[in-house]
Design a protein that fits this description.
With 492 residues, the chain is α/β, with parallel strands linked by helices. Helix content is 32%, strand content 13%. Strand 5 and strand 6 form a beta hairpin.
């Protein structure tokens, strides 16, 4: 066990052992279980794992992870039989990450291809893989260095390196993590989406394609757990993943993964053979978004959540989003057009951050519209004397006689019938957080990544890579291709 690089592994030659779903739940600490028509979910209140009986595909907290062995159906009693190594060395580390290393992580970035090896090529817009991944590597490295990590590169310019030279460079440099960057290409021009590769366990088959099983333990198998943690941390951050189109954390015996002397992953950032993705990858702002995602994934790996927190996608948004409930009316004041004062405000405004000003701060010369707004908070059934009494009682508690006088004066000025009518007619609509769009709103056909980018978003800058300036793309050049994104999923 080596915590310095989060390199953890069990004996690779242990005999294959199956666990029932109940035993796997006990090992993972997941007491909840929901059986659906085609899936089985288990969870612990923070994490969720979804199994697809008869397949290697799983979803861990919403991100697709391909296991080393099939989750075998096991009837109505046991439900599933899972490979014990998958439970111990894939699922458990993902749900209960080990502690972070004590020293800054040394990350080796490996932009693929280079020199005479251009890699995949997109015709329209014209992009060569070697230029694309070098640009991404420089952007990612800058972000990691700013975060305090130590960064190295197998190449920083248009230079050709053999695969042996790439892994040897990482070993000599004593890297704690190796991230190889590539772009995909397929005969199926609709294949889309990013995918991340790690080495399969010795004695297990790769994901898709070549299904030959090799029992030979490779150098990279010494870091089986670290490989999975690094790959998952990066993949869950990548833009362009949507449900069935999440190609997932996959397994392959690429040479750089076999020979790596530290946890290693190979990231395919998208398909240059897909016209939509090629246009995205030609854009500087999207490459900035992609670089940020990979950098954040590496930082997640370097600084995993605290014990029992687990990985929960989108938790940052949940912590910062406003929550409106009946018990917290003052929070509504932060929303557009919401009333600033309620009957409960004087008691709780001091305990809430940025709460609306309490009525005690009002001056004696409160104008009539303010008094009307206060009165409008009362239910329509409450008559004007009751409103005045409620205000007087609250004012007495906070010591602001000027407010009472102002309200009484305003009420007398506009008359009781006017107050009652105003109360009955006022209707305040507070936007519902997370409200679904109306059915008649057209579904956008551009990628989710495009929709999420603010108009004034700043994109991390990086040294310019020759041949990869932002492309001017004709908006009508893709008429013969679907505009939806992603549009395909390769079910291995």
């Amino acid at each position: 066990m080596t915590l310095a690089g989060l390199s953890l592994s069990l004996a690779p030659d242990a005999p294959a052992v199956s666990l029932t779903l109940a035993k796997a739940q006990a090992m993972l600490g997941c007491t909840g279980c929901v059986v659906n028509a085609e899936t089985i979910d288990i969870g612990d209140g923070t994490n969720r794992v979804r199994f697809f009986p008869g397949r290697r595909r799983t979803e861990v907290n919403g991100s697709t992870v391909w296991l080393n062995a099939i989750a075998e159906p096991a009837g109505t009693s046991d439900l599933l039989k899972l490979d014990a190594r998958d439970v111990r060395e894939v699922l458990r580390p993902l749900l209960r990450p080990p502690p972070a290393p004590e020293h800054p992580l040394r990350v080796m970035l490996d932009p693929g291809h280079g020199g005479e090896d251009s890699g995949a090529v997109s015709a329209r817009p014209a992009i060569e893989e070697k230029d694309l991944v070098l640009d991404l590597a420089l952007r990612i490295g800058k972000l990691l260095e700013e975060a305090g990590l130590v960064v190295g590169y197998t190449r920083r310019d248009d230079t050709f390196l053999s695969l042996d030279e790439r892994t040897a460079t990482a070993s000599v440099w004593r890297a704690d993590a190796f991230v190889s960057l590539h772009a995909n290409f397929a005969d199926n021009r609709q294949a889309s989406g990013p995918e991340t590769y790690v080495l399969p366990f010795a004695g297990y088959a790769p994901t898709g394609g070549d299904q030959r099983i090799s029992s030979k333990t490779r150098n990279g198998n010494r870091h089986d757990i670290g490989n999975t943690l690094l790959g998952y941390s990066i993949h869950r951050r990548l833009p362009g993943r949507r449900g069935e189109c999440d190609r997932g954390l996959r397994r392959a015996r690429f040479q750089v993964l076999r020979q790596a002397g530290c946890p290693a992953v190979l990231v395919e950032v998208g398909f240059l053979s897909n016209a939509v993705e090629a246009r995205l990858l030609a854009s500087g702002w999207f490459r900035g978004k992609l670089a940020r995602a990979v950098a954040d994934g590496i930082l997640d790996y370097a600084r995993p959540p605290k014990k029992d927190e687990g990985y929960l996608p989108g938790i940052e948004a949940l912590l910062t989003a406003p929550v409106v409930t009946e018990e917290t009316p003052a929070v509504a004041g932060a929303l557009p057009d919401a009333p600033a004062v309620t009957e409960e405000t004087p008691a709780m405004a001091g305990a809430l951050p940025d709460a609306p000003a309490v009525a005690a701060e009002a001056s004696a010369d409160v104008e009539v519209p303010v008094a009307t707004a206060v009165a409008a908070e009362a239910p329509a059934a409450i008559e004007a004397p009751a409103v005045t009494a409620a205000v007087e009682e609250a004012t007495a508690a906070i010591g602001a006689p000027a407010v009472t006088a102002a309200v009484e004066e305003a009420t007398a000025a506009i008359g009781t019938p006017a107050v009652t009518a105003a109360v009955e007619e006022v209707s305040v609509e507070v936007p519902v957080v997370g409200e679904e769009p109306a059915d008649d709103v057209a579904e956008p056909v551009v990628p989710a990544a495009v929709e999420e980018v603010p108009a004034d978003a700043e994109v991390p800058t990086a040294p310019a890579v020759p041949g990869l300036e932002d492309k001017d793309v004709d908006e009508d050049e893709d008429e013969n291709h679907p505009a939806s994104y992603p549009v395909a999923f390769d079910k291995a």
